[in-house]
Write a structure and sequence with these properties.
Elements (H helix, E strand, L loop, with lengths): L17 H7 L1 H18 L7 H6 L9 H21 L6 H23 L3
Helix pairs in contact: 1-2, 2-4, 2-5
Length: 118
Amino acid sequence: MHGPEAQCWHGCGEEGTLLHMLWHCPVIESLWREVAHFLSGILKVDLQLSPITCLLGARAENIQSNKHQRVVSLACLSTKRMILMNWKIGFLWHILITNTIHREIIISTCTHAYTHNL
């Protein structure tokens, strides 16, 4: 496919292949970096996400615990779902998703503190 309909819907101007729009687009890459940073903080591990882990569900390399792997898998699934549900909205959707992730960080932190009596 060629022409404007083949361009990435995120507004980067690149060809909008499925892999590009789920992983390689600069807008999406920043979202995945944010997810990796969030998960690294929660799990206390330096998490380097890959398309194999995030898009196909393979086990993250440096995650030993099955519980932590489930957290990574669910976070990746939720992120993919947000991308797929909002990818035609345009560039501003990234701001919406980033704000949602920030709210989730606050909620998770408060929940963790409450459940551990901190």
